[in-house]
Design a protein that fits this description.
Length: 259
């Protein structure tokens, strides 16, 4: 199992030195770069032995994918330009979380919002296919958005999307935040293609077995013989210090569970 960390591209050298297999920047950070900034980012990535294999935050909050303000042309334009850039940086996985973009506005039917989300996921899947990318839908806790709040709901949405380039992500923080049964992870089966992990008690970088029930998380992953990537996503104060400790913990757990 490959383990990476969610960090900006400027942190790629430190992430490499800490022992990570890849980094996971945000799509919006790359999309917002000038051509000069992007050229510098490409040079920095090329100088590292690791790559930006995954990206998160597919849409900024002002590009709405649900509700009455959905602009299909703007969504398509964002996807086209963003995917061209991140593909050059080594992208393989793109996380569709974007809680602000997908928040169902007051007075809008949630069932319709979910249908709109599915429509956007299919559009994103088509755009991703051109670059050999996989979109993974990220369920978010109810404090961050109001649709697709559990791995179980995410599984249903991905199944209904029925696109070969659209799969599912499970994030340990969101699962724990809303007290979702861990068994939903293994129930997702082969749809589960990406993982986010963090100490759910404070959203800090994993440091010890005692701080969280990581064993339950890895046990569910082992039941489906998970072989995808796992990204640390949370508050990072010093990758050089925290990174090796987290990697030792997660790789130890992965080995114990046959991952």
């Amino acid at each position: 199992m490959r383990i990476g960390i969610c960090a900006g591209i400027d942190a790629i050298t430190k992430a490499q030195a800490a022992g990570f297999d890849y980094i996971e920047p945000s799509v919006v950070s790359i999309a917002g770069m000038t051509e000069e900034q992007f050229a510098s980012a490409c040079s920095l990535a090329a100088s590292s032995s690791i790559r930006c294999e995954a990206f998160n935050v597919l849409f900024p909050g002002d590009i709405k994918v649900v509700g009455p303000q959905v602009d299909a042309a703007r969504i398509q334009d964002h996807l086209t330009k963003s995917f061209e850039r991140i593909a050059k940086l080594g992208a393989q996985m793109v996380v569709f979380g974007s809680g602000g973009a997908r928040k169902c506005p007051d007075g809008w039917e949630k069932a319709r919002a979910v249908e709109q989300f599915i429509e956007t996921a299919r559009i994103a899947g088509d755009a991703a296919k051109k670059h050999g990318l996989t979109i993974v839908v990220e369920p978010l806790n109810t404090g961050e958005t109001n649709i697709i709040n559990s791995v179980s709901e995410g599984k249903d949405v991905v199944s209904r999307t029925a696109h070969p380039n659209v799969k599912l992500l499970a994030d340990w923080y969101h699962i724990r935040k809303d007290n979702e049964p861990a068994v939903h992870i293994s129930e997702a089966g082969a749809l589960l293609q990406h993982i986010h992990v963090i100490n759910s008690n404070g959203r800090n970088v994993p440091a010890s077995r005692a701080e969280d029930d990581y064993a339950s998380f890895f046990r569910e992953l082992s039941l489906i013989h998970y072989r995808g990537r796992m990204s640390i996503e949370g508050k990072v104060n010093d990758i050089a210090v925290e990174g090796p400790v987290a990697l030792a913990l997660l790789r130890g757990l992965a080995k114990e569970h046959g991952l």
